[in-house]
Design goal:
Rossmann fold, 3 domains, 6-stranded mixed β-sheet, 13 strands, globular
């Protein structure tokens, strides 16, 4: 498929492919098709359900809160959208082997889609990555290597491997323009699933390419006349690691590297942006352009929101509940109005996480009499 890679900073067209940054200024590259491009479903990704909260919406004092169930993608996370799109373009780029840095979800997604495409995948993950996610990537045939440090260390490791061995880097920051272009398709889905346009979309973010892809997706729909406005995008970060939110509250455009003293339970939010702060700056730019906001939530607020979603039959990993936590916070602050249409992106499955939602161990009955007494 004919396309261009255009720098978001200087608008230069990158001729060499694959490419991970603008050769003129080092800026982020954006995928622009030169002809109509259809989605590339490889394993049924996308078209995930949009589920309204019922009793929980009343608890939040909001009329219309919807959960976009991205955990129902083939490998259990939104990363499948980007991987499917990137792998669909990989053959024309001459890709043979794949490297990816991941907090967990991207490694499983790259492994599954790489396996489907017949390409070997090596994943570099932080040493703290849950074994549920490590086992999932390994089950698809990936070679998984744990690396000391946080996600930024894994990012630098994957970047070095890609440069040294000439492997294709599918790391899900903004480094691969095809990956974050694959997130744009969710916007048309949301437009078709809603009878009234969304006012706010809650997006859990590390570096933030999911939010960036959503901004560009709605921008295209606005240019096509499909929507009248771009929903206001909320970038949700943890109080353990919030470099983008820090810049937002400073009313700045520059994002600084973060030094995390303790990780959040929402592993996908543990991104200090060390060595690639321009990714955070671009996400912040998309937040500003959408007239959105950044929000900081605590682990306690995330767990509370996760339990609330569980009572509605929705089981997500901690990062996937961060949007609901943010919605509750913004409603209490008076930012959200009761009648606003709100979408929260549940980014990954609860089956991927070893973090409990505060439940106690279930009791054990040894006899029918004991069973009846427990009821």
């Amino acid at each position: 498929m004919r396309h261009k890679l255009i720098c978001v900073k200087c608008n230069a067209v990158q001729e060499q492919k694959p490419a991970y940054a603008c050769s003129k200024c080092g800026g982020i590259l954006h995928f622009e098709p030169e002809e109509s491009e259809l989605p590339y479903p490889m394993m049924g990704e996308g078209n995930t359900p949009l589920i309204p909260l019922l009793r929980s919406a009343q608890e939040l004092d909001l009329d219309k809160v919807y959960i976009k169930c991205e955990f129902m993608n083939p490998t259990g996370s939104f990363k499948d959208r980007g991987m499917a799109f990137a792998l669909a373009h990989s053959r024309e780029l001459g890709v043979e082997k794949i490297i990816v840095a991941s907090a967990g979800n991207a490694s499983a997604s790259a492994a599954a889609y790489g396996s489907r495409a017949g390409m070997p995948v090596t994943a570099i993950v932080p040493a703290s990555t849950s074994m549920e996610k490590v086992r999932q990537a390994a089950a698809y045939g990936a070679k998984v290597i744990r690396m000391k440090g946080n996600y930024s260390d894994s990012f630098q490791g994957a970047k070095a491997v890609a440069q040294d061995k000439k492997w294709y880097n599918l790391t899900t920051t903004y480094i691969n323009p095809y990956v974050w272009a694959g997130y744009e398709g969710i916007c048309r889905e949301l437009t078709e699933q809603l009878d009234k346009p969304a006012d706010w979309i809650m997006v859990p973010i590390g570096a933030g390419p999911f939010l960036g892809g959503i901004y560009h997706g709605f921008l295209k729909l606005k240019e096509e006349g499909v929507v009248e406005k771009i929903p206001r995008l909320i970038g949700v970060q943890s109080d353990c690691c919030y470099p983008i939110a820090d810049a937002y509250f400073r009313q700045a455009t520059d994002v600084k590297e973060w030094n995390m003293t303790r990780p959040t339970i929402a592993s996908g939010l543990n991104d200090e942006l060390k060595g690639y702060t321009q990714d955070g700056a671009y996400t912040l730019e998309c937040i500003y352009k959408s007239q959105g906001r950044a929000v900081i939530v605590s682990d306690e607020e995330i767990l509370e929101a996760r339990a609330l979603m569980g009572r509605e039959g929705l089981y997500t990993e901690p990062a996937g509940a961060a949007g609901v936590a943010a919605a509750k916070k913004l409603r209490l602050e008076g930012v959200l109005h009761k009648s606003d249409v709100i979408i929260s992106l549940a980014t990954g499955s609860g089956l991927k996480s070893s973090i409990a939602s505060g439940q106690q161990e279930p009791p054990t009955a040894e006899t029918i009499e004991e069973l009846l007494n427990l009821l």
